[in-house]
Amino acid sequence: MALSINHLCTACDACLRVCPNDAIVEDQPYYVIEAAACTECLGDHAEAQCAAICPIEGAIVDELGVALNPPGSLTGIPLHKLTALQLVAAQP
Amino acid sequence: MDLPVIPIVPVKSDAGGCASSGCGSAPDALAHLPDHIRRKVQDHPCYSEQAHHYFARMHVAVAPACNIQCNYCNRKFDCANESRPGVVSELLGPDQAVKKVLAVAAAIPQMTVLGIAGPGDPLANPERTFATFRELSARAPDIKLCVSTNGLRLPEFADEIAKHNIDHVTITINCVDPEIGARIYPWIYWDKRRIRGGEAARILIEQQQKGLEMLTARGVLVKVNSVMIPGVNDAHLKEVSRIVKAKGAFLHNVMPLIAEAAHGTYYGVMEQRSPTAAELQALQDECAGDMAMMRHCRQCRADAVGMLGEDRGAEFSLDKIDALDIDYAAAMARRKLVHEEIIGKLEAQRREPARKVGAGGTVDEVTDRGRPVLMAVATTGGGVINQHFGHAREFLIYEASAMDVRFIGHRKTDLYCSGGDTCGDAGDENESVLDRTIAALLGCEVVLCARIGYEPWGRLEAAGIAPNGEHAMEPIEEAVAAVWREMLAAGKLAAPAAAKLCA
């Protein structure tokens, strides 16, 4: 089991420094989680650390492709205020 | 059709950005500071109103990560035409940043200040931030270092900051009340968790206040930035000002909220309005008391280079500086001469008695005889009125009164976007630009420019703003004073009835 980062990532570096497993690597055009090293922080922390600091909704997903921070969850912007484009973009 | 005015002789300004020389003749906003602090800030363009005409600054974008979310920020946005904090085009590693700083310092000897301001929070990227500072304090000891932070991790790094050559810190403090904070900050990352709502704001406020106290106790100069958000913290900022001043902040900078739907920020999307120029000025006046308020802040990008109000970042992109071979020892000698010359000039200005412009007589003669008037000035630099009204992207605002001519601040006409061909709609753009300009000049009674077209002339007059092209190429303060005297002579400045009764 492992989390992964998708194209929404802005390479802001925040997750890399909080991962307890050093599972995140700087890559082009965005960061990558090495699946073999990722534990989803189970046993270490109450929350997956990358997802707890990531500022971009939809950028970190679980193995089923479900966003840990779905649209609206970080900015508080109500879904009806998001444009169709923003909603599509925020889908993993 | 242009109205007949004095022909314009283009003047090359040696000081970019703000062109007023009037900040110097206005009462010195830092006059209340002890000498040792004044010496620290006299060559800092962001802190000294006077210095920003002569000295330049630069930011290096080495700190991408952030540990809080603000409702006025969207980290996804990056546009070369955008000019606002938190936006950059090119992220640098510490080594690249050091090389860029040395290149700029050699090319622009007036550059005295290097700041790290993001695009995230510098203290959320401590390794990259302090590696840059360490290297620079060793290789370029003539450059002042500053850092700008949200304050969440400030207590943790207060000793580290004091240990380096960093003697200027800016903390953004928008509130001291968690309930208000909950409307500004949706979350923070703290103690391995994402914390939301009032609890997040409470922790952030606690850390900011503790950090402020720790820095001032260590003799580090602290400036406080606040974003004015109408209906959220506008009334509250007076309290913030009082508290941070009591804790030793030497300067408070109240900045207007930047919020547009296109930026995709919470405030932008939710149509939170920005303050008007008049509201901002009123709050700045209320917060001022005997504390210095900043009026010349331009809300720079986190990778800005040059004088305040200008950005020469594109001249120093990575590929360009890679090709450079810099002899910093030689540059430092040259820089020293330039700095000494400017400081000498500033000291001389400071010794000069403040110019009393009023009606040309003594203050006693003219007091009570005319009310203060706001005037807008179009200028490209050099301290003179030399810009066509239609070309002005920002206006300098002056208040003329019987006492003096005071620089109040600047107002932008096309807010925060310098984009030309690719930005905005083509159709009615001229119409809307003029509308926006007139709205930006609200409260001004006169606009001084080198020339002005027929149509805007009529529109300005209809809006109650008198266009004036008669002082083209004249020094700003003298022209503003002359216009004020003309208005006084024409009986347009009768003192309010109440004042007459008191007199």
Question: What would your notes on this structure say?
Answer:
The complex is a heterodimer of chains A (about 90) and B (about 500). By secondary structure, chain A is α+β, with helices and mostly antiparallel strands. Helix content of chain A is about 15%, strand content about 10%. Chain A contains three helices and four strands; from the N terminus they run βαββαβα. In chain A, strands 1-4 form a two-stranded antiparallel ribbon. Chain A has a two-stranded antiparallel sheet with strand order 2-3. Chain A is globular, with a radius of gyration of 13 Å. With about 500 residues, chain B is α/β, with parallel strands linked by helices. Chain B has an eight-stranded mixed sheet with strand order 10-9-8-5-4-3-1-11. A five-stranded mixed sheet of chain B has the order 14-13-12-15-16. Chain B starts with about 20 loop residues before the first helix and ends with a helix. In chain B, about 35% of the residues lie in helices and about 15% in strands. Chain B contains 17 helices and 16 strands. Chain B is globular. The N terminus and C terminus of chain B are likely disordered. In chain B, helix 3 runs parallel beside helix 4, helix 3 packs across helix 12 and helix 5 packs parallel to helix 7. The longest helix of chain B is centred in the C-terminal third of the chain and has 24 residues. Classes of the chains: A alpha+beta (about 90), B alpha/beta (about 500).
